Amino acid sequence: MTDNAIEVTPQTLELFQMAVEARDKAHAPYSRFNVGVALRTASDKVHVGANIENTSYPEGWCAETSAISHMIMAAESGADRQIVELVVIAELDPPITPCGGCRQRISEFGTTNTIIHAADPGGIKSSFTLGQLLPAAFNLEGDA
């Protein structure tokens, strides 16, 4: 278990390994800050992504965005579009969590109970629910 008592399962460890592999494919020639993500859906499908930068810095996209895009393109049902667990990995101490924009993107396809694991190359270091990371997510219904 991590420091906040969310269980790390064999499925989680598989996500971690897939996030490591995704991180190795990042395109970050300007920042040299490679990030990888692996997410699992309610239908138990896994999608990965890496950050992709370009010369016009703000026009790149985060690893979470890349993984969510793969999920959407592969989805065949509603359960294929519901994120239940996600691992984000970068080489930073302490490990990163998704940025604010990505937290909002995850909330579009997850719930307050979606589990987000922060990892570095040594493994998963912290785990949170999306509700902990984004307690007042924007939504058009006006309720959090």
TrEMBL record:
Its cofactor is Zn(2+). Keywords: Hydrolase, Metal-binding, Zinc. It comes from the Bacteria. GO terms for molecular function: cytidine deaminase activity; identical protein binding; zinc ion binding. SUPFAM superfamilies: Cytidine deaminase-like. The keyword Hydrolase applies. Substrate binds at N51, I52, E53, N54, T55, S56, Y57. Residues 10-141 form the CMP/dCMP-type deaminase domain. Zn(2+) binds at C62, C99, C102. GO terms for biological process: nucleobase-containing small molecule metabolic process; pyrimidine-containing compound metabolic process. InterPro entries: APOBEC/CMP_deaminase_Zn-bd, CMP_dCMP_dom, Cyt/Deoxycyt_deaminase, Cyt_deam_tetra, Cytidine_deaminase-like. The keyword Membrane does not apply. The active site is at E64. It catalyses: cytidine + H2O + H(+) = uridine + NH4(+); 2'-deoxycytidine + H2O + H(+) = 2'-deoxyuridine + NH4(+). Its EC number is 3.5.4.5. GO terms for cellular component: cytosol. Belongs to the cytidine and deoxycytidylate deaminase family. This enzyme scavenges exogenous and endogenous cytidine and 2'-deoxycytidine for UMP synthesis. This is Cytidine deaminase.
